[in-house]
Amino acid sequence: MSHLPNKVEAELQPLLGQLLKSIKERISGAPSVECAEEILLHLEETDENFHNYELVKYLRNYIDTALGSVIEEETEKCTSAEGRSLGSGQDTLVQQVTRKTRESEEYKEMMRSLKNTMMVVVESLINKFEEDKLKKEELHKKKTHEQHTSYCMDSCSDSGSSFNQSYTFMNQEQLQIIVGKLDPSQPKEIRREALQSLCCAPPSDVLNCECWITLRKHLVTALSDPDPILSDRSLRFYAKTFSSSTFSATRETYTSLAMHLESCFTSQQSSVPTLSAGMDITNPDVVRLLKKFRLLNEFQKEVPSFWIRHPEKFMEEIVESTLSLLSVTHEQSFRAESSHRVLKPVYFLALLDTKASWFNKWMVKIINIKEM
To answer: Count of domains in the chain?
Structure first.
């Protein structure tokens, strides 16, 4: 058994994993790599469960099988009349047998085989760990995206509709009719029905229609409408368009939503809370504003994935609209009829996303592109 067969590698993987899991806290608590190595080297002395680990039992059995005959032979030599007698100051029997065994070819071959096999096992464990980590990250990202999309769907829905409707394909004429019904001059009920129909259309059809520019204006107008149903259904369309995960959809919906939010702070009819009054999250106007910022923040987390394919367009449009929104000052949001100043956009984003890790990613990419 001086050579470990390939199938043994598969047996050693879980045993090594079990050992590492058992001492994980001790190793992770080490202040340095050197200290962690010291812990491993003296594990037998410090861990009372050392001899109970399955890996230790396995290796002990392996060593006994590989070197058993060598140890017996050396023991006989050292204790026989032909062997060297032990006197004062000389090695003990155990020390002699140990030294002779370590000098044997069987021992050297065993160590080579064991070392090579354990290197393969460790490398395999590392690869498996990396794969599991990537899978968990992808699963977490997918789950988070689904939860966020679901949140936007749920929070932007109303009692008379469901966001999880099947798509209804529309031609140019049908979309043109919807645009006409969305005109601010139309009765509120007609505009509501038009938005409901628009949310059922494939985002690609809507974004590629000939009347998209006019339609986008009407959507922004609906977003600003005091009627909560119109505002929510318009936001539903933005959320559903974002979920289509295409660059054009992201660019169009993001820049449009960012410009709308900027206008919320610079308009004289702004319903944004003031610094002195604070933020009342039970206020319907504040809730709607938070919903919009929540959706915008989801865009901010996802758009870096589109950056690789469209770096120039990304910088020119999405980054510019973001910086414009974040640059809104107290002077811009100052109300002429009041001495109070309203909260700035950055406060809302900070409330929804305290770490804002997306911002660091954006800045790194901007710097890298400028240096190209």
So the answer is: 2
